[in-house]
Amino acid sequence: MSFDFVKKLDFESEFFNLYKISESAYAAICKEDSSMRANAGFIDIGDYLIIVDTTMSIGAAKDLIKAATHYTQKEPNFIVITHYHLDHIMGNSLLDVSTQIMTSDRTLKNLQTEGRKRIEDIKKMDLKKLESSLNKVTDEVQRKRGEIELAVAKTIQSEGFTIREPNITFKTGCVIHGNNKNVHLRTFQKAHTDGDVIVYIPEEKILFTGDLLFARTDPWLGSGDPEGWISLSEELFTIDFKIAVPGHGELASKDEFTLQSKYIEEILRIVKKKIDAGEDPTTIKREHFSEEFQSWKSPIFQRNIEFLSEYLKKS
Ligand SMILES: [Zn+2]
After folding, report:
1. Taking the chain, what is the end-to-end CA distance rounded to the nearest angstrom?
2. Which is deepest, 16, 169, 220, 296, by most CB within 10 Å?
């Protein structure tokens, strides 16, 4: 998808391509196979600089902050966290307490339960064992993924590593008022996770979706409510925006929400059909899906099938 009003900036980063998508907003789109793993961005609203998500990689988050201060000539005042998954929060502690971290009440709660538990589990991992099992992986995609996981585990186990948790939260939404622009934060029913946050600039019709949108790549369904996500997508579709910065994938138009809903509906239907027929859903392959999903190649596909096999048996 290309947008004639988007300008690619010549900021050098091994982790992301940087785009100026409006007068105030910048999108850092993760390069393929980068340890950054998820997209991020920043918004200059005149008297405040807002960072949106801090990615999976400390290096990527450092580049993001460097780019933000370079292009805006400001220091970050706020970090907005779109949800609790590690690939959106690892760089939180790079900025000290003079930068406020904002999110929804439910995302903070998830961070303090699921998020902390995940970090404790990673702290207990045997890195040597992880490294030697990685050496045996022959599939290149899986190997790259494993390498990123190992790097994250090494970071989390490094001395003094912490993830700052948000210190300002809201129940349904709030507005950050700048002297140039206002930025709206909103949260909804459970979808990708419970407490997902969007960042919206009405005046510029810019939407940062967090992981409520995976653009042309398998959306991870296992932390949320797939049906709730489909109905929320209809609501998000009604928001007046001309470009979306998705949590994963390239810059997107409204159509990507429709495509993502089609994917979720289809995977639910196919897995349910297998269960109803008394067959093993984990034998489902990508070939069983519509043509537009054939070129998608994320390993999340298999994890979604495994998750739904259990999820749909329970419901
Ligand atoms: Zn996520």
Report:
1. 37
2. 16
Per-residue tokens: 293: 């999903």
Q: Cα of 110 to ligand 1 centre, how many Å?
A: 12
Every domain of the chain and the residues it spans: 7-114+163-255
220 CA from centroid of ligand 1 (Å): 7
CA of 295 to the centre of ligand 1 (A): 21
Half-sphere exposure of 177 (CA within 13 A, CB side): 0
| pTM > 0.85: yes or no | yes
Q: How far apart are CA 211 and CA 224, in angstroms?
A: 11
How would you write 72-103 as a 3-class SS string?
HCCCCCEEECCCCCHHHCCCHHHCCCCCEEEE
- How many angstroms separate the CA atoms of 145 and 125, rounded? 16
Give the pLDDT confidence of 227-274 residue by residue, as tens digits. 999 999 999 999 999 999 999 999 999 999 999 999 999 999 999 999
Look up residue 291 and give its amino acid: E
Does domain 7-114+163-255 sit in CATH 3.30.70.1170?
no
